[in-house]
From TrEMBL:
Protein name as annotated: Leucine-rich repeat-containing protein 3
GO CC annotations, alphabetized: plasma membrane
Range of residues in the leader sequence: 1-21
Record's bilayer topology term: Single-pass membrane protein
Xref: SUPFAM superfamilies: L domain-like
Location of region: Disordered: 217-239
Membrane spanning residue stretches: 187-208
Similarity section: Belongs to the LRRC3 family.
Main location per the UniProt record: membrane
Keywords of the record: Leucine-rich repeat, Membrane, Repeat, Signal, Transmembrane, Transmembrane helix
Localization terms from the record: Membrane
Record PANTHER family: ANTIGEN BSP, PUTATIVE-RELATED, LEUCINE-RICH REPEAT-CONTAINING PROTEIN 3
Amino acid sequence: AFFCLLLCIPWGSSCPPSCQCTQRAGAKAVLCSSQHLEEIPKDIPRDVVFLKLDANSITRIPSNAFRHLSHLEEIDLSRNAIEKIDRAAFRGVAAGLRSLDLSGNRIRSIPKEALLALKARLRLANNPWHCECSLQEVLWEARLDPDSVRDITCHTAPRQEYVGKPLLQVLDAGADFCGARQRSADAAVLVTMFGWFAMLVAYVVCYVRHNREGSRGHGDQLSSLPSAQAPADASSTAL
């Protein structure tokens, strides 16, 4: 009877030990705020809609961290110690996610693939961002929360004058981090093409020089051969 009871309990009804599972607006919410968690719990119920993991010590969002949570609409990961977000961190929930809060962490950079696939409204403020092309693309293409977008500040940047300023202000002033990368890529292509061209020219010069030396040697060999005309001249003289 005990094993039958276990089988009758739906898997999704379990709750992580450090969390509270409640109903919020008719949907399941898992509340794990301020529980000293160092990683995302593995046993989150599959039917969760609202997930609060804020004010913990989580340092990384690994690939497929929420893949089995197909009903998930809101994730709050603010005020953690997140430094790394894998490219496939939000695989499986990108289509249905409406809100993602990553503010107040230690994120310096993030793969643009991890965020640009999301349709959720993003909060990225108060992180020590390194202003670069990928962050610029996220700012232009992702759905950022309008109330927090001005708090995305350049903690480090290619130029000292950008440090400490909101990324939006830097871009409005005419900076283009992706343009600098494109120019570097174009320069690298030109250098490579010049190298190949120089090798081709060197090969042609060597080939022509080798042929000239071969022709000259062949001519010298012919000139050193006995003339066929000389015996004929000697015979006519004898007559």
